[in-house]
Amino acid sequence: MNRETMLESSISSSASLSKPIEIYVFVDPLCNESWTLTPLLRKLQVEYERYFTLKIVLRTSLPKMNLSCLRSKETTNSCENHHPAFPSIAMKAAEFQGKRAGFRFLSKLFEYTYLQAGNILSFDTLVDIAERIGLDVDEFILDFSSNNVLRALQVDLYLANEMEVDNAPSFVFFNENIEDEGLKVNGLHHYEIYEQILEEMVGYAIEPDLPPTLEDLFKRFDSLTTKEIADIYQLQEKCAERELKKQLLLQKVERVTCQDLTLWRKRN
Question: Greater confidence, 212 or 10?
Fold first, then answer.
């Protein structure tokens, strides 16, 4: 897992980083545990992003993705409009419009999965997600069926192999010393574990940033659960829900409920 063995592009980009820690997070769009990871990542970004850069890497559970059908621009016809590899392909296509766009796409996939708003294996659903988060949809569709997205997936698979990551979700932490080995953390753990690791990697006491206003939080993340918001603002869930209901009355947010999950999102 030494970074000297990683792709030259990854090494050269890390050399220019001003933040002391790099975190590679390996996710699988078809794995429920990867979706459970999403709220943890958001809280980590809100509180400690000044200490680290975040790289989302795909570690698909598909043993061998048959992507030959994606080489044609007639994607919806040649692959019958759905395929288990499509969410991974879409993630990479979204990232071509910026790292934050890729993370927003992942968050929206999380929302669609839990609200059962659409089949995320469907090309049409993925295009709808791209449109909803404000991507250039024409560019997204072109990238989706390009060779570039296949190469991007190959890079992710290469990184997983070099860092000896066999499962998702997994974290790999790197400090500023390029010769040091990365610290790999498999599976999901309590939030405090990641705080402790981050502090140990930085080498001094870290302090969480104050959370943004609710308005700014919803500008950054398309949808959040009541529990997420309570955790970010260190409130009891009842108090968080009361504040969210105020925003609901002001028509600043909307509430979507599916089974035992409630999501809040900015009102368009």
Answer: 212
